[in-house]
């Protein structure tokens, strides 16, 4: 199957700093990428939908100035957690859809990135 | 907004036995898709099975099958001949046109497989 790679897999940062997480589709062009957040022993919550070349669409309750999403190319989307605080500590997962499969094509998931804010 | 409900936080099954995980959903859309995903301790999301709402036939993938009851908005997953490697969190998910076919997940069911 298609491969989506996330980097870093684990990052620890100090409170107040910004952290960038990358999501890359390695063998397909991802016109749409989704970012999820997962707290321990909980489900995945959709944060935002990002379409290549346009602004991300954020879910209700997600601060767009806090979680900056950029999808500047067909193979890369980035999530930047700005001025991170301990409550931002979580597992962040991206998923990507192959643009060639249409709007209902299978979503491929990255391995996830664990963020710990001290 | 669509909601996905998994009423079983935890389930246990003995190796080689069969277990059914429940999922119900609420929607007013006519065009949508339903999924079961497995999340092992590695936390990598793995697609188990997918069902298109317009298809009446229940999807099957080897030991995994679903019971899709569209009128009842029910989508249960049956795992036959359970194996130790099946132990994981299982998430039911919905994707519809209103959300750009983004996945909306239930709270998950933790499946324990005992020898």
Note down, in words, how this protein is organized:
The complex is a heterodimer of chains A (118) and B (115). Chain A is mostly beta strands. Chain A has strands at residues 4-7, 10-13, 19-25, 30-38, 44-51, 57-58, 67-73, 76-81, 90-98, 107-109, 113-117. The mean pLDDT of chain A is 93. Chain B has 115 residues and is an all-beta fold. Chain B has strands at 3-5, 10-14, 19-21, 24-26, 32-39, 46-52, 60-61, 64-69, 74-79, 88-96, 104-105, 109-114. In chain B, a hairpin with a 2-residue loop joins strand 7 and strand 8 (64-69). Chain B starts with a strand and ends with a strand.
β content of chain A, as a range? Answer: over 45%
Mean pLDDT of chain B: 95
Helix content of chain B: under 10%
Instruction: Give the largest chain-chain interface (CB within 8 Å).
Output: A-B, 21 and 20 residues
Largest sheet of chain B: 6 strands, mixed
Averaged pLDDT of chain A: 93
The number of helices of chain B is 0
- Compressed to H and E, one letter per element, the order of chain B equals EEEEEEEEEEEE
What's the number of extended β-strand segments of chain B? Answer: 12
- Principal-axes geometry of chain B comes out as globular
* Radius of gyration of CA atoms of chain A, rounded to a whole number: 13 Å
Instruction: Give the assembly state of these chains.
Output: heterodimer
Please mark out the parts of chain A with pLDDT under 50 across 5 or more consecutive residues, or reply none: none
Which stretches of chain B of 5+ consecutive residues score pLDDT under 50?
none
What is Rg of chain B? 14 Å
Largest sheet of chain A: 7 strands, mixed
Q: Count of DSSP E strands of chain A?
A: 11
Structural class based on helices, strands and sheet pairing of chain A:
mainly beta
Distance linking N and C termini of chain B? 41 Å
Q: What portion of residues of chain A is helical?
A: under 10%
């Amino acid at each position: 199957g298609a491969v989506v790679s996330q980097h870093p897999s684990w990052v620890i940062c100090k409170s107040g700093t910004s952290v960038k997480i990358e999501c890359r589709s390695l063998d397909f062009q991802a016109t749409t990428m989704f970012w999820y957040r997962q707290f321990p022993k909980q489900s995945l919550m959709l944060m935002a939908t990002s379409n290549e070349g346009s602004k991300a669409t954020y879910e209700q309750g997600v601060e767009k100035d806090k979680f900056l999403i950029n999808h500047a190319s067909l193979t890369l989307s980035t999530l930047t957690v700005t001025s991170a605080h301990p409550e931002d500590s979580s597992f962040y997962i991206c998923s990507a859809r192959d643009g060639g499969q249409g709007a209902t094509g299978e979503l491929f998931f990255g391995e996830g990135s664990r963020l710990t804010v001290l | 907004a669509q909601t996905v409900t998994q009423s079983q936080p935890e389930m246990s099954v003995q190796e080689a036995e069969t277990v059914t995980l429940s999922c119900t959903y609420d929607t007013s859309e006519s065009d949508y898709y339903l999924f079961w995903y497995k999340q092992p301790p590695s936390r990598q999301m793995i697609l188990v099975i997918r069902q298109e709402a317009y298809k009446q036939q229940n999807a099957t993938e080897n030991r995994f099958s679903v019971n899709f009851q569209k009128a009842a908005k029910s989508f249960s997953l049956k795992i036959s001949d359970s194996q130790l490697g099946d132990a994981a969190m299982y998430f039911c998910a919905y994707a519809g046109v209103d959300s750009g076919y983004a996945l909306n997940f239930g709270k998950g069911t933790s499946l324990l497989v005992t020898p």
